[in-house]
Amino acid sequence: MRYVVGHKNPDTDSIASAIVLAYFLDCYPARLGDINPETEFVLRKFGVMEPELITSAKGKEIILVDHSEKSQSFDDLEEGKLIAVIDHHKVGLTTTEPILYYAKPVGSTATVIAELYFKDAIDLIGGKKKELKPDLAGLLLSAIISDTVLFKSPTTTELDKEMAKKLAEIAGISNIEEFGMEILKAKSVVGKLKPEEIINMDFKNFDFNGKKVGIGQVEVIDVSEVESKKDEIYKLLEEKLKNEGYDLIVFLITDIMKEGSEALVVGNKEMFEKAFNVKLEGNSVFLEGVMSRKKQVVPPLEKAYNE
Ligand code: MG
Ligand code: MG
Ligand code: MG
Questions:
Q1: What is the pLDDT, as a whole number, of residue 255?
Q2: pTM score, whole prediction
Q3: pLDDT digits (tens, 9 = 90+) for 128-158
C-alpha cells in the first residue's frame, strides 16, 4: 500500500498536504502523531476526517510531505520503499535509489501542491487530473496560513499569497485575514494545554554534525498564556535533554503580535550563544524578528555546529 505522510508531531501543513496529495495520487494519507488543536479546528471546519495513524514504514510505499529529515520521519523509514518527497524545507536525506523529489523554498508544502494544481501540472508528480474540491482547498489554504503565520513569517513568498487567494475562492472563504485570525486563535489554545503537550505540539529533531538537537516552537497571540508555565516547561526540557541524549534543546515561544521569539535554551548554551551572537539571560533570550525555525533558527545553529 502507498501512503503520503508528513512529519512527526504533525502540523496543519503536514496533515493537509498528506490528505490533498493522497487524493491526487490515489493513495492513502497518514500521520505520524497526534493532531494538534489547530489542525483539529481546521479538519472540523472543512468536515474532513483525520488521516490514519501509522508507526512503521515496513512493507509500505512512502511519499513524504513537509519534511525529509530522517529524524522527523518514521523510525524505520529504510524498511519501507521511499517513492517521493514533496517539500519546502532543506534537503534532509540521501537515498540509495532514485526517487521523485520536488521542493520549493516557499512558505508551505500546501503552496507547492496548490501551484502544481493551478498550473495543471499535478501529473508531473504522478497525480491524476482531478478537481480540487472546496473542502480540500480549505485545508491547503489553512496550511499556508498556519505555516506563514498569516503571511507574517519571513518564509512568506508572493506565491504563498497568490495561492492563498486562489484557494480561498474555491473554498468559499471571502475574508482571508479574518479566517486566518480564527486559525491562529485555534493555534493559541496553549493556555489550556499541559506544559508537556505545549512542548510536543511542534517539536523537531535535527542532526547537526553528529549531535542531536531538538527545536520546539509554540506560536501565540497572547504570551501571557505560556508565561505561568515557563518554569515547568524549562524543567521538562532539562529532563528531555538528559533522558533522550540531546546536546541542545531550544524552545521558541513565538509572539505573533510582537513578531519575535523568546528562546528557552537547555544544554549546549555556548553553541546557542555562538550561533545567534547573543548572551543568554539565565536560560533565555528574546530574539527580535525571529519567527521561522526553518529559516532563522536551523541555519545559524547548523552553521555553528559545523564550524
Ligand atoms: Mg511542518
Ligand atoms: Mg510546512
Ligand atoms: Mg510551523
A1: 92
A2: 0.88
A3: 999 999 999 999 999 999 999 999 999 999 9
Structural domains in the chain plus CATH codes = 2-187 (3.90.1640.10), 190-306 (3.10.310.20)
Q: Which ligand sits closest to the CA of 110?
A: 2
How much is the average pLDDT of 180-198? Answer: 85
pLDDT confidence of residue 172: 98
Residue 111 CA to ligand 3 center (angstroms) comes to 14
Q: How many angstroms does the Cα of residue 39 sit away from the middle of ligand 3?
A: 12
8 A C-beta contact, residue 275 and residue 290: no
Ion ligand 2 neighbours, Cβ < 5 Å: 13, 66, 108-109, 147
